[in-house]
UniProtKB/TrEMBL annotation, chain B:
InterPro entries: AAA+_ATPase, ABC_transporter-like_ATP-bd, P-loop_NTPase
UniProt key word ATP-binding: yes
Annotated stretches, region: Disordered: 306-329
GO molecular function, one term: ATP binding
Top-level taxonomy: Bacteria, Bacillati, Actinomycetota, Actinomycetes, Kitasatosporales
Keywords assigned by UniProt, alphabetized: ATP-binding, Nucleotide-binding, Transport
Coiled-coil regions listed in the entry: none
Similarity field: Belongs to the ABC transporter superfamily.
Name of the protein: ABC transporter ATP-binding protein
Ranges for domain ABC transporter: 2-227
Amino acid sequence: MAAVSAVLQSEWTKIRTVSSTVWTLASALLVTVAMGAALCALLQSTFDDLSEAERATFDPTFVSFSGMMLGQLAMVVFGVLVVGTEYSSGMIRTSLAAVPQRATFLFSKIAVAGALALVVGLATSFLSFFLGQALLGEHRTTLGADNVLRAVVGGGLYMGLIAVFSMGVAAMLRSSMLSLGILVPFFFLVSQILSAVPKAKEVARYFPDQAGSKIMQVVPDALNSEKAPYGPWGGLGIMLIWVAASLLGGYLVLKRRDA
Amino acid sequence: MIELEGLTKRFGTKTAVDHLSFQVRPGVVTGFLGPNGAGKSTTMRMMLDLDNPTSGTVRIDGKHYRELQEPLKYIGALLDAKAMHGGRSAYNNLLCLAQSNRIPASRVGEVLDLVGLTAVARKKSKGFSLGMGQRLGIASALLGDPEILMFDEPVNGLDPEGIHWIRNLMKALAAEGRTIFVSSHLMSEMALTADHLIVIGQGKLLADTSMADFIQQNSRSYVRLRSPQREQLLDALHANGFTPVEAGGGTLEVDGATTEKLGELAAENGLVLHELSAQRASLEEAFMQMTAGAVEYHAHGTNVHGADGQGVTAPPAAGPRWGDTTKGA
């Protein structure tokens, strides 16, 4: 067995020596924070126009995370590129010749990239929260309020898990282009559209992004949204099952297929 | 020492590698020769455990590749030149490989210096020419100072100076007692570098022999004669137990004779000779004849006479003539 610590160090070098790491993670952070801030500012000025039900279930924490819908796409790109460029560049053969133990190779890569995505995700989440609350004025909440800290930490977990899920998918499909071609439309369009269609939403709420984002809600039926059959941690659990499945699939493909 | 035992690889119904068994021994350069599509690269990928064999095994010093601790210290390989991340510098590409096998970072500078890439060490490798990419791949193979080195078509894309350099490098590495396994589809290239030869065609082993034996067995040497007194010369040759063969253009070819012997014979009989030369059939022709039935991709359209496979024994019309037929006189 190649020493795991050596492989982790090697994977860290791989990540920090390509420019895509910086621009994808920076986009994730900036887009999320900026879009969240813009929506908070908008809602602050138009709060009185909201319906009574919407005002009653106003969730200032969740509102400050509005940018994640777009920002998560940059996390998807980061996750896909970390794994996918091994294949598109042909580096995978060199990498596997150096570390032939498939599990050590894949999971070291995902551990390093996942940890980095998690750190950036948490920074994004806290920044979005504080900036959003500052802009919400009298409608703001605080980190000390019930369940708010759970939601903010959960936002970071969600961003990290989206990246890890994408890494597993890229390992299964062995192509950056194919993975992005499936994941981006899925998270940006399919999941969002289906969640608005009456019958389809019963299924769509079990999608990784729909289930996982539940953890960011402080008010259960925030802004008059529908009740889900699972709580915040249940939702995160469903997302974790998706992540585990994608990692297992990615590992099996790497183990069985010729490099 | 690399040992292959009954190594087989099938892609669907097509057998790319068919029960290959041979050994690659230390201290010599072993050439791995075969026409395009013969299964050389597939075999090498299986040796590195990149492709899973359908059946059979490869052992490196008695172990499976996946069992090797820090494999770059055992075996270094150049498979394809561009198997690096183009957005990363040459130095960083090698650094992440070195770190994964606990090779000190100082070694990265050493191998870059060895292959002559120090000046571009901090440049992104996507801007590299094929030759520079090849050198970077060779640097990565040398990184762990391994006992076994594998090169797949290492002279591809190298300029004459680079080809000369890689030949000498391989010889020097073998002289240090290392195992060198190098593939090529050019017999002439192998004749210059390899001590031992393994020839495959359509995935099957065709020859496993020393280079000296291969040359002796496969290159027919003969003497070519031309004389205005052709009939008397034929009589004289027959009288002395030679069996001349008519070779067109009024020339005769005599197997198993020396120019000295035949020159003296002509003088004794008072015959005028216009040509007396020692000839040797090229190794390239011998190789093409050996693999004729096993060539994967035939070139059609040239005047191929008769059945399938016959035309390929003719030398390629436009291709360079490696190891010219005339070797002195």
